[in-house]
Design goal:
Elements (H helix, E strand, L loop, with lengths): L2 H5 L4 E7 L2 E5 L5 E5 L3 H13 L1 E10 L3 H11 L5 E8 L1 H20 L10 H21 L5 E5 L6 H7 L6 E4 L7 H4 L5 H8 L4 E4 L2 H14 L5 E2 L4 E6 L2 E7 L6 H8 L2 H14 L3 E8 L6 H14 L7 E8 L6 H21 L7 E5 L4 H10 L2 E4 L8 H9 L6 E5 L5 H4 L4 E3 L4 H13 L2 H17 L2 H13 L9 H22 L1
Helix pairs in contact: 2-19, 4-5, 5-6, 10-15, 11-14, 12-13, 12-17
The structure holds adenosine-5'-diphosphate-glucose.
Length: 510
């Protein structure tokens, strides 16, 4: 599809704080753009490929020349059918909007960690200014029939700013992190502005029913007598004569892609090598972005307690902890890295011996094939965030567990719990004694039970994969305009159908 054809249709405009790419200079000083990773990229790339459209976001670097950036970005999207549009942030904006308001206020507060918040008023000014900047950037580009989908906590006020700029198109908003209970939310000095600002969207989407319930309770507290109608996934209300939908849509992964790639011989061989090299009966895997919400120190404490209380685990069970660096310039994150590394060396010093290392640790981004091999090699996934919007790692592990005999230990405070509670061993990550017991239970679990549980987990993720998520959200917000807007799952069905037709025609030929 050529860009000019595209522009006559209702394009999808995705807006997120970061563009789904990483820009860095290579050894010779030349700028290089590489594909980003993570849930949002996995979810949105196929939609944009199918529909064409635009992704607006910050490049991840302070300042920068727009033309140079645009040329770089255009070169990466040449054959993709969609385009990237950079938003340029100054150093002060990066400090106050991104590191400050987003990551020192909204992130900890929305993860129930209020004591980590720094309610600096200067951050609020920058937050509003940058949300306005994103809105202005959208305004410059948008056409009347475009659909706008704004993502995550950094951009909760972009809708309000767009309305003030006179944009009346339908706008959807999805919050990837939890929404806190009213008790916590109302601690925020700018609670009314944020809540009212979010109501500028036509659809406000959350990860779980609990998040939506918290939001609705906050609405009841500030709009006395508000009527919220409906049941099921999407509720509706009217404020100032505008209809607003409020729903929950658990994000997921491309299950088929994960499962297909995990089955490849090269992944199986690599997984076997990892198992041989680790040389233990039970490999326990932790995979996280470096973040205090992921509960890594608590998990390590539980692992240490398990080795102490159940000495039979010593020598035959190892934890493989992968951590991808994140927000490393923020002092609290550097402190966390140090804490984790000290804890690991303490456990290894206390229990390790020649031929057996209790904790293996990698602090870097792992490429996709290698990550799949780790997932396949692991007997137990140890996923214990203190609080998490969803947690895609839990879903990725199950999808990649093509042998169907892995065990998932999952925090009851991860959004993924709602869909995975039947097959997983659920734990309270703060209760390290119970977590240690769950680890032992996983180690001792017989093959029949492992298989039954993993089958349940995989079935649930397969049924509600990322395509289901995108369709459910887009239909809820753009339902009246969806004529001629193909559902992604339709595409899949067509793909499967044509594959089946192809198969039967081969049979016919024989
Ligand atoms: P995150 O907090 O980033 O996402 P998560 O959902 O677990 O958390 O996604 C992490 C992604 O990073 C996964 O795709 C994983 O494969 C990848 N990853 C982790 N460690 C890695 C490593 N060492 N190397 C390479 N890749 C690694 C936010 C919210 C979540 C929500 C998602 C999507 O905090 O709650 O599930 O958005 O909405």
């Amino acid at each position: 599809m050529t860009p000019s054809e595209n522009e006559t249709e209702n394009r999808l405009i995705i807006v997120s704080n970061r563009l789904p790419v990483t820009i860095a200079r290579d050894k010779s000083g030349q700028w290089q753009v590489s594909e980003g990773s993570g849930g949002l990229v996995t979810a949105m790339a196929p939609v944009l490929r199918d529909r064409g459209g635009l992704w607006i976001g910050w490049s991840g670097m302070a300042n920068g020349d727009r033309e140079t950036l645009k040329n770089l970005l255009d070169s990466t999207t040449e054959d993709t059918g969609y385009r990237f549009e950079p938003v340029i942030l100054t150093e002060e904006e990066v400090d106050h909007f991104y590191k400050g308001f987003s990551n020192e206020i909204l992130w900890p507060l929305f993860h129930d960690l209020q004591t980590r918040c720094n309610f600096d008023p200067a951050y609020w000014d920058a937050y509003q200014r940058v949300n306005r900047k994103f809105a202005l950037c959208i305004c410059d580009i948008i056409k009347a029939r475009d659909h706008i989908w704004i993502h995550d906590y950094h951009l909760s006020l972009v809708g309000r700013e767009l309305r003030e700029l006179g944009v009346y198109s339908k706008i959807g908003y999805f919050l990837h992190i939890p929404f806190p209970s009213p008790d916590l939310f109302f601690k925020l000095p700018w609670r009314f502005e944020i809540l009212k600002g979010m109501l500028a969207y036509d659809l406000i989407g959350f990860q779980t029913l609990r998040d939506r319930r918290n939001f609705v309770q906050c609405l009841h507290l500030i709009y006395k007598g508000i009527v919220i109608r409906g049941r099921g996934k999407v509720l509706r209300t009217q404020i100032d004569g505008r209809e607003i939908s409020i729903g929950w849509f658990p994000i997921s992964i491309d299950y088929e892609e994960f499962a297909k790639n995990a089955k490849k011989d090269e992944v199986r061989e690599r997984a076997e090598t990892i198992q041989k090299e680790m040389n233990v009966q039970h490999i326990v895997l932790g995979v996280d972005r470096l973040d205090y919400t992921k509960g890594i120190p608590e998990r390590l404490a539980a692992f240490e307690l398990a080795l102490e209380q159940y000495p039979e685990l010593q020598g035959n069970t190892s934890l493989l902890q992968l951590v991808v660096p994140s927000r490393v310039h923020i002092p609290k994150y550097m402190e966390l890295q140090e804490k984790v590394e000290i804890q690991i060396s303490k456990i290894n010093g206390r229990f390790g011996r020649p031929g057996w290392m209790p904790v293996h640790y990698m602090f870097r981004a792992i490429d996709n094939r290698e990550l799949l091999a780790f997932y396949r090699a692991a007997d137990i996934a140890f996923i214990t965030p203190l609080k998490d919007g969803m947690n895609l790692v839990a879903k990725e592990y199950c999808a990649a567990n093509v042998d169907g005999n892995g065990v998932l230990i999952l925090s009851e405070f991860a959004g993924a719990k709602d869909q995975l509670h039947r097959g997983a061993l659920l734990v309270n990550p703060y209760d390290i004694k119970a977590v240690a017991q769950a680890l032992r239970q996983a180690v001792l679990m017989d093959l029949h039970q492992r298989k039954m549980r993993m089958q349940t987990l995989r079935k649930s993720i397969r049924r509600q994969d990322v395509y289901w998520w995108v369709d459910a959200f887009l239909e809820a917000v753009f339902v009246h305009k969806l004529k001629g807007f193909p559902r992604l799952t339709d595409h899949l069905e067509q793909r499967h159908l044509s594959y089946r037709q192809m198969e039967s025609s081969y049979r016919h030929d024989e």
